[in-house]
Write a structure and sequence with these properties.
It contains five helices and no strands. The protein is mainly alpha-helical. The relative contact order is 0.13.
Length: 156
């Protein structure tokens, strides 16, 4: 190879390496080290789990795997939890910079509300389901939501 071709190749390699370092300044391309992206993903996971839980509840009720009383309790608890999660999700998605002390306090307060409603959904709704398969299915959604809540532990 000619020296010029080698130097051009090395220059292209160096440029590619520099671009790859600046393309994702906050960590991996999936944003795992960027707290705002991590928070937004966790908030989306909570909202998605609530949405899936609502659909699962409807399906279980239609297939008579929930009693009418169980369905009513779940509907009420899911409505409350959905409102709390939606409010929290909206606030998290509005963040454009890392939360300061005031924003952290607001998020902690909203998260506390989410945690309380999810605990109420679990104890007042899911744990009261008599069908073991239905209870297990709904418990998986609660576990998903609790895992998403844990992502926000760094706020406290």
């Amino acid at each position: 190879m000619k020296p010029r071709a080698i130097s051009t190749g090395l220059m292209l390699l160096l440029v590619a390496a520099c671009l790859s370092l600046t393309a994702c300044p906050n960590g991996n391309s999936d944003g795992t080290t960027d707290p705002l992206r991590k928070y937004a993903k966790a908030a989306d996971n909570m909202a998605g789990a609530i949405n899936s839980m609502i659909k699962a509840k409807r399906s279980l009720a239609q297939s008579n795997r929930l009693t009418p009383a169980e369905e009513l309790r779940l509907t009420e608890k899911l409505l409350t939890a959905n409102t709390a999660v939606s409010t929290f999700n909206t606030r998290v998605k509005s963040l454009t910079v890392a939360p300061d002390a005031g924003t952290k306090a607001e998020l902690v307060n909203l998260l506390s509300n989410v945690t309380a409603t999810i605990n109420d959904l679990n104890t007042g709704g899911v744990l009261g389901i008599s069908n073991p398969e239905s209870k297990q299915k709904m418990t998986k959604f609660i576990d998903t939501i609790n895992a998403a809540i844990a992502v926000f532990s760094s706020l406290q």
